[in-house]
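Table S5 (text form). Sequence records supplied for joint modeling of the two-component complex.
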Amino acid sequence: MSKYKLIILRHGEGAWNKENRFCSWVDQKLNSDGLEEAWNCGRQLKALNFEFDLVFTSVLNRSIHTAWLILKEQVPVESSWRLNERHYGALIGLNWEKMALNHGEEQVRVWRRSYNMTPPPTEESHPYYHEIYSDCRYKVCDMALDQLPRSESLKEVLERLLPYWNERIAPEVLKGKTVMLSAHGNSSRALLKHLEGISDEDIINITLPTGVLILLELDKKLRAVGPHQFLGDQKAIRETIKKVDGQVKVKQGKK
Amino acid sequence: MSKYKLIILRHGEGAWNKENRFCSWVDQKLNSDGLEEARNCGRQLKALNFEFDLVFTSVLNRSIHTAWLILEELGQEWVPLESSWRLNERHYGALIGLNREKMALNHGEEQVKVWRRSYNVTPPPIDESHPYYHEIYNDRRYKVCDVALDQLPRSESLKEVLERLLPYWNERIAPEVLKGKTVLISAHGNSSRALLKHLEGISDEDIVNITLPTGVPILLELDENLHAVGPHQFLGDQEAIRAAIKKVEDQGKVKDSKK
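The corresponding structure-token record, covering 514 residues in total, follows.
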């Protein structure tokens, strides 16, 4: 029986979404569509009379700006690297279409959607390595800089996310606080997998639309009482899911 | 000898600044000038290579938005931010929303100056009949304070601002500064003045003459006991800062043509 409600949100578009490039730990800004998606979310929440006590975000600015746009300013926001998007290693910044042309649609789909496939790690020669690891936000984590991921499977995302859920977020939910997580595609999927008990095989087929509020109802032990629900216009949501799925497919004309 | 650096700032303009009305606890937004002032602050602090560990704001949205804009300019949106009513602007009681020029015409420039700038004169309290009473006290943010709703101020002198601010400085902010954290306080004209009075040891008489410009980062260097080692400094173009101070001071004066 549902005792707690949790809202999770995958932030909206940044410039690289349109270019089909893995953004991951690069600190891209939301583009105008992404900003609009956030505002829409905010309006929806207001219409639903949600009042949050606490918001958790990653340390990537797009998740924080999404939260700032949605919420009343006085709601405390806490940011942690443990909610960051999945670290795509050496694939960061690469274009999906080009990768699919070179490696095949199936390999790209495996890299994007498998549970335990870790891409090759990012290295100092990677164009975005220093931009990421020189940033002071990664010097003040609860993990030393050299211990932070250089690449992750979805499984590894959950492994670094779960302690944060257990130690920081879950206790607040159990206190009856209304909590929102403003996160990313894969960090949201990892958490839903855990809370809903989704199998390693089934998680591959779960797509989360951007800028759509995801409601998860939890029992007193913080297990999902049913599948996650998308709040809002269901037809528009189906279109958004299709759009996210479509980013992987190679356009027919290029085969 | 300077051991710690603290940055305090007074947020920029909201709509009522231009109308010379006491905004106080009414949750006005920054206007476009105020937004630009915040971004300028951020750019200045970026040029000076500031890396903040912690930001403190009031619960009024204009102080929070100012902090957000500054953090955005710095690329430091992830820095923890904490908000407390104890950093709120001074509560102007029954004077909230009233136009300063009109008050000066009715009561004289001197009385207005006393209300605005004295240390221990408390304006008449706000009551339920005041047009902004319910907008303020029905808001959920005042139900989750460390003080019960009915115990929150209904009017304050600058002295009373310091009395409710000091526990927060002592218990939440000072320990972080002593740990060597680089702290930004995004606050208001009077809550900033109250804190500076305390840290710099400014007398009750002298504080009357201290004016803080909006949207200018204020640097205070502190010794190991968190006492100021010198007067606060305004960071930035000094001529522009003098003009900004004059603008704030002029808001209290009645225009000659109306006398």
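Note: Chain B touches chain A at residues 51, 53, 59, 61, 64-65, 68, 72, 75-78, 80-83, 140-141 (CB under 8 Å).
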